[in-house]
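Priority: medium. Attachment 1 of 2:
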């Protein structure tokens, strides 16, 4: 059981995280079939509530809910009454009145999903799809799932695995969620960034911090490149894009310094030529497109465990019964 909401990777025990990842593996088999659908969430209503831009996360949550036969509504703040000044509370009350069983929320304010889950406005489950610079738990889960498939011959054990995360850690909810989840799963994380792009207090996070990418490469099992989040930057955090990519970008020369079986991850959207060169992004060792596929399956698992859980068919039983 993983509880009612998924707000943060901090809330997940090792067993809960492993249960989501194992369920993902079972559901991945469904996504590989020609009819990619289970009846598990028939009659349930899932709302995608997106106050910030998104491509992968929004589409994959939508697809995941549809593959489990839920009714899905996608709400983008742009083009809704939010642009007329409607509050989060009134938006939530509207969704509650429509009978939402789960609300997947992405919001620019860190903590918005907690407010939604705890204010008593809605009765359903809340899933954090990215809140400000705080957390993005399903991204960390899909990254962990991808790493489990590629590291250590794919046996699924990340204990002792060395994962290097490079770039704009300061603004990255992906980095925060990954550091916590990978630590819970026993991996060792090294964050690499210029001092200006590291948050205050990073020394208390369960990871190692370095300013030098080249020192971290030779012992990495995997490297995750983060986007430089210009939209969250009010000032100037580095002298120029050229200098940033020279000091912190992953290009073909740096990739040769990685162990031969190390994989390259990026949560997307990528700034090609900035934190990652096109050659690396398109190389066979980049698992960036596979991360997107795994994202659908992880989100199916989360919806299944939060909404279906013990009251519903297991993926196996549902599979046998068909749609
Ligand atoms: C990330 C996000 O929105 O936090 N993207 C994603 O969800 N795939 C990272 C980013 O925007 O750079």
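Attachment 2 of 2:
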């Amino acid at each position: 059981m993983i509880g009612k909401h998924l707000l943060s990777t901090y809330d997940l025990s090792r067993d809960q995280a492993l249960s989501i990842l194992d369920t993902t593996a079972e559901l991945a088999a469904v996504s590989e079939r020609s009819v990619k659908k289970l009846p598990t969430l028939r009659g349930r209503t899932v709302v995608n509530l997106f106050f910030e831009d998104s491509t992968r996360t929004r589409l994959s949550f939508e697809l995941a809910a549809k593959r489990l036969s839920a009714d899905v509504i996608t709400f983008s703040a742009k083009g809704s009454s939010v642009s007329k000044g409607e509050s989060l509370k009134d938006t939530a009350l509207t969704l509650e009145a429509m009978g939402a069983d789960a609300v997947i929320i992405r919001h620019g304010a860190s903590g918005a999903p907690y407010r939604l889950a705890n204010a008593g406005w809605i009765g359903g489950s809340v899933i954090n799809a990215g809140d400000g610079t705080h957390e993005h738990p399903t991204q960390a889960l899909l990254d962990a799932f991808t790493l489990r498939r590629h590291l250590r011959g794919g046996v699924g054990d990340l204990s002792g695995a060395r994962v290097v995360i490079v770039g704009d850690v300061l603004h990255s909810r992906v980095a925060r969620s990954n550091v916590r989840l990978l630590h819970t799963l026993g991996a060792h994380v090294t964050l690499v960034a210029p001092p200006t792009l590291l948050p205050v207090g990073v020394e208390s996070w369960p990871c190692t911090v370095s300013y030098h990418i080249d020192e971290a490469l030779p012992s990495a099992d995997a490297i995750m490149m983060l986007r430089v989040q210009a939209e969250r930057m009010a000032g100037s955090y580095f002298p120029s894009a050229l200098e940033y990519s020279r000091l912190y970008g992953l290009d073909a020369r740096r990739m040769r310094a990685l162990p031969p079986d190390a994989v390259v991850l990026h949560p997307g959207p990528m700034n090609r030529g900035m934190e990652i060169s096109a050659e690396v992004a398109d190389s066979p060792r980049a698992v960036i497109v596979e991360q997107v596929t795994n994202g659908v399956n992880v989100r199916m698992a989360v919806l299944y465990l939060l909404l279906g859980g013990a009251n519903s068919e297991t993926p196996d039983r549902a599979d046998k019964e068909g749609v």
